[in-house]
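MOLECULE: protein
FOLLOWS: sequence and fold
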Amino acid sequence: MAPLPKVGEKRAKPLFGVTAAMINAASPNDFLATEFLEGYLLDEEGLRTFNSDGSLGAVAHRAYQAELGENPNIAATLANAEIGDPMPNIPEMGAFWSAMEPALQNIGSGRQAPQAALDAAAERMRTSIQ
């Protein structure tokens, strides 16, 4: 992991996702769910348990992020998120990711030069949303 490179003179802006939880207003135990979220899941111990499989990435909890930030991949993820934008929740993102997946695989494996792979992905995106 590393901060995204510049495209021309401008720094690329990554998209980032967020893990969230909601409580159904009709829940008969909404107070217990609130207590679980606020009293356990959002403290360091709860986050550490939730992250035991390494799935959290960078987190908003400052003390726990300081601990995670010792990992250079997590530090780079946070640096990218700080300059990025939240991923839009729109159907067109499906076209983006389905076009980008083979491009990223081809770039990573050396099967295609980055510019050629990204140009092909851009064409797939244009075709799929028209």
